[in-house]
Specification:
- By secondary structure, the protein is mainly alpha-helical.
- The protein has one domain.
- Helix 1 packs across helix 2, helix 3 runs antiparallel to helix 4 and helix 4 crosses helix 5.
- The longest helix is centred in the middle third of the chain and has 21 residues.
- The mean pLDDT is 93.
Length: 121
């Protein structure tokens, strides 16, 4: 699975004016859904349709999608014995997306540790 290193992801996202961030969310959601499918867990909507619906709903649907994504992420981490940092509450993790820079670190770190545990299983 593709890894997203915090510094590289942040710099590329900055240089591309956020376009790389869309790719990052797409890849993370795709990988999470793959892990969920293999473990019989619920999958979430892919990021691209969610993003487009979010554009139509002025971002409201994206807030719901982010909650579903982080909820799925926490469930997968519990399944693989990975501690979600800094919290295992999907609502608080979702709210961290509004904290610039730190949110990139948290999202990348939690995703990478989950992907590593999945590949090691």
């Amino acid at each position: 699975m593709k890894r997203f290193e915090f510094i590289v992801t942040f710099i590329i996202s900055y240089v591309t004016c956020g376009i790389y961030t869309l790719y990052m969310w797409y890849q993370m959601a795709k990988a999470n859904n793959e892990m969920a499918r293999q473990n019989g867990k619920e999958t979430i909507m892919d990021f691209i349709p969610a993003y487009l619906i979010g554009c139509v709903t002025c971002g409201i649907f994206l807030i719901y999608w982010y909650y579903k994504f982080f909820n799925q992420q926490v469930e997968l981490q519990k399944l693989y014995g990975v501690k979600s940092q800094p919290t295992d509450n999907p609502i608080l993790l979702m709210l961290l997306t509004f904290v610039p820079v730190y949110s990139y670190y948290v999202i990348c770190d939690n995703y990478n540790r989950t992907a590593d545990a999945f590949e090691g299983k």
